[in-house]
What we know:
With about 140 residues, this protein is mostly beta strands. It is about 5% helix and about 40% strand. It has a single domain, classed as SH3 type barrels (Roll), CATH 2.30.30. The strands form three sheets. Strands 3, 4, 5, 6, 9, 10, 11 and 12 form an eight-stranded antiparallel β-sheet that branches. Strands 1-2 form a two-stranded antiparallel sheet. It starts with 7 loop residues before the first strand and ends with a helix.
Amino acid sequence: MKREHIRMSPKWRNGYAHKDCVFVITDPNVPGMQGMDIAQVLTFFFFRLRGIYYPCAVVCWFNRIDDTPDEDTGMWMVSPSSDGNHAHYAVIHVEAIFHSAHLILVYGTEPLPLSIKAHHVLDIFTLFYVNKYADHHAFEIAW
């Protein structure tokens, strides 16, 4: 068995925040990406209620663009979920997190300004590919 670490660090290596993206199981009865959504982990926390321990995560959701992967790349496309100018956040149980997800920017034709750094991209860009080639687990998940 392999153990995977999903990270959220406000100062990764004394630099900027590091917030992993993840596959979240939203419908366990549907296989693959049809039963999952993509989210970015903003923080982890836990609470106890009546002696029961609940490990949780605050996430920011992404929406699938279509019901099928992109025809040209074979990868699913997602965009940040929002209602007007407000992002969609949720508190989920950590057991709903299935695996880490790697998002690839959908670039335009213009060069990016040098002021855009890697830690900015999930906040600036509005369209991403879910990288099914990140590892063999992602390939099996995002078919």
